[in-house]
Amino acid sequence: MHVLSRDQSLFAAEDVPGARSIGELTLAIFRSASGQSPDHAAERELAAVLLGAAVHLLYLVSDVLDDVEDGDYTDAGLAMPLALNASTGLLFLAQHALLSIPGTIVAASRLAEAVCRFNLELVRVCSGQHEDLQSSSFEDSMSEERCLAVAEAKNSAMHGTFYALAATLASDNQELVKLFRAFGSKLGLALQLQNDLHDILSPQSKQDLAAGKATLPLVYSLAQAEYAPQLQRLLQELTERPQAKEVLDQAMELIWHAGGIHYTWVQSQLAGIEACDIVKQIERHCKPDAYVYRVIQLYQVQDEELSGLLA
Questions:
Q1: Cα(113)–Cα(294) distance, rounded to whole angstroms?
Q2: Dmax over Cα atoms in the chain, in whole Å?
Q3: pLDDT of the chain along its 311 residues, tens only?
Q4: Which of 36, 106, 184, 196 could link 160 by a cystine bridge, Cβ 3.0 to 4.6 Å?
């Protein structure tokens, strides 16, 4: 309840330089789509903050559950039960926040319809995670295309859902809703690929490499004939000795040499650039909040920079 009583400073993360918040971005999209109308300014701001809080909480839920499902709580004790219980509480708080949006801004019937659609979309996100858990081993024949499809069904779909909800509650312009969904999907894909990079580059705290999880850095590296046999052997060894530092280090070095790290980073940048292009289309319908530009500034590259990126 303390979280929901805070204003938009909840999302600013001022103590973390360069930090970006999905809650703050949701709030910014609500402001963008609702225009600059002075009517009901206080209620509109409250609605935006409640929506941002709900999305912020739901993202925390997904993050905690993802760690549980990926086996990142290695020294369990009470860690896993507490994580599951906390995520359940956060989920109910998120729903409470959504349903507390003032009726003077969003009619009750419209809000109920939006929440129903929102919940169904999140079920589809769960389906993407389900597929990922069922086929996420290096021993499975995971292609690069399927790997990207799984990423799009998870973080990408979740961001698209969150931002489409923000636009839906703020505007009747269905084209604008569609554009914000597309923007969220591309930004979510960029962030998912960055997350995959972070996890495989953190073998001491994350299990992706030790478990041979079929994320893009590994899938791409295994597709390189020069490195695949040795990398397969090391991954097989990690199934028996998942904490063997010398094996983890050798596998990491091979992934670097095979180009898996650079290739995944490039794909992340390209998805971000597509998100920037969608913002240009959004500008035809409304004036985006300044925070939207802050989020995409890392992906705003010139043509000559893009050529160098792909070299």
A1: 31
A2: 65
A3: 444 444 434 344 444 344 456 778 888 888 888 875 556 667 777 777 888 888 888 878 877 877 777 666 666 667 778 888 888 888 888 888 888 887 777 778 878 887 887 788 778 777 777 776 666 555 556 788 887 887 777 778 888 888 888 888 888 899 999 999 999 999 989 888 888 888 888 877 777 787 778 889 999 999 999 999 999 898 888 888 877 888 888 888 999 999 999 999 889 889 999 999 999 999 999 999 888 888 888 776 555 555 555 55
A4: 184
Three-state secondary structure call for residue 213: strand
Cα(150)–Cα(87) distance, integer angstroms: 23
Tokens of residue 236, six digits: 């097989």
Handedness of CA 65, 70, 75, 81 (dihedral sign): positive
- The long-range contacts involving 240-248, CB below 8 angstroms and separated by at least 24 positions, are 242/207, 242/210, 242/211, 243/210, 248/203, 248/204, 248/209, 248/210
DSSP letter, residue 156: I
Superfamily of domain 2-310: Farnesyl Diphosphate Synthase (1.10.600.10)
List the chain domain ranges: 2-310
Q: Which amino acid is located at 260 in the chain?
A: G
As to burial, measured by CB atoms within 10 angstroms (0-12 exposed, 13-18 middle, 19+ buried), residue 282 is buried
Q: Which tokens hold the place of 206?
A: 């994350």
Q: What would the two tokens of residue 221 be? A: 């590296």
Model pTM score? 0.75
d(CA 309, CA 311): 6
